[in-house]
Amino acid sequence: MYLLKSFVKNPEKTHYYGEDNDEQILFVFRASMLTIIPWVTLSALFAILPVFVVPALSSLHYNGTNLISGGFLFSFLLFWYLFSLGYFFQNFLNWYFNVHIVTSKKIVDMDFHGILYKNISETTLTNIEDVTSTVKGTIGIVFNIGDVIIQTAAENPEFEFSKVANPAKIRDLIADLVAVRRKDDPNRRNN
Amino acid sequence: MTLIDVITNIATPGGFVTFIELIIVLVMGLYVLYSFIVLRQVDLMNKSLMTPEGSLFKLLGWFHFVSALIILFLGIMAL
Fold first, then answer.
1. Domain tally for chain A?
2. Where are the transmembrane segments (chain B) (predicted)?
3. Containing domain of residue A104, as a range?
4. Residues in chain B closer than 8 A to A99 (CB atoms)
5. Among residues A130, A164, A172, A125, which one has the least CA distance to residue A23?
């Protein structure tokens, strides 16, 4: 169970589209858990809001009768909670599926934004030229959150793992894997 | 109350509230469409990355879509 983990080593029963038979997923990275705080807070505020708004709406009267019927107010309340759930669900899906996968052969970068954008890039470990980690800003320094930028010799020259926790550790893991892979690769051994 | 009645009475408090209720029901209808797109998105995401939690997301996606349909029905009935 790694529903809420932003760093998973050797994940079980996890595969990606296009995975080779002899390939093994070694690491799965997501944006740090701290990046979910803004939309989790907003979802909580959405859930609390009816506590204040509904009594005000139900107290609206005109000519001695309620302006908004109880039935409609109830269905609107249900709709509001469904909207809050939908907002949370959509954001959670975006966080959960925006993953960076390191396998025994490749790195894969999956980007989903909103409901209408999907981008998946991959490159082999032997194509990786340079790995850089950056931590910047107050929040980045305090919580050790930053970016890992991977320069490649492939068509897609740069992979970026954004807002990951402990970027230096990720950089080190990838660099070590690349070194091992290059050592084993007969085409690269003499370079 | 017909749509013409709603428009002609829009300046009165009751007519204005009915007009707002109609707009809300319209938004509920659009939300059903959105929840269907989310359902398709969950399917697409699950195909891109297969995890043990995939079935849970699918279930939540269906719950979200069916709930949106039920709430739209309730909204129309309460008008």
1. 2
2. 16-39, 59-78
3. 7-13+23-31+98-185
4. 49
5. A125
- Confidence band for A92, pLDDT divided at 50, 70 and 90: very high
Question: Where is average pLDDT lowest: A61-75, A136-150, B43-57?
Answer: A61-75
Minimum distance, in Å, between the CA of residue B2 and any CA atom of chain A: 17
- The answer to whether A16 and B50 are in contact (CB under 8 A) is yes
Q: Which tokens belong to A49?
A: 């809001």
Average pLDDT over residues A153-173: 88
Confidence grade of residue A191 (pLDDT, cut at 50, 70, 90): very low
Last residue of a domain, one of A72, A93, A114: A93
Name the residue in chain B with its Cα closest to that of A90: B38
Report the CATH number that the domain containing residue A143 is assigned in CATH.
Answer: 2.30.29.30
The beta-carbon neighbor of B68 closest among A67, A82, A120 is: A82
* Cross-strand bridge partners of residue A112: A118
For the segment A34-91, what is each residue's pLDDT rounded down to a tens digit? 999 999 999 999 999 999 998 888 888 877 778 788 888 999 999 999 999 999 999 9
* Separation of alpha carbons B15 and A128, rounded Å: 66
Residues of chain A with Cβ-Cβ distance to B35 below 8 Å are 86
Are residues A116 and A27 part of one domain? yes
- Does A116 lie in the same domain as A176? yes
Q: Judge whether A108 and A122 are in contact, CB under 8 Å.
A: yes
Q: Which residue has the tokens 């969950």?
A: B42
β-strand pairing of A61-62 with A65-66 = antiparallel
- Average pLDDT over chain A reads 89
Closest-CA distance of chain B to residue A3, Å: 7
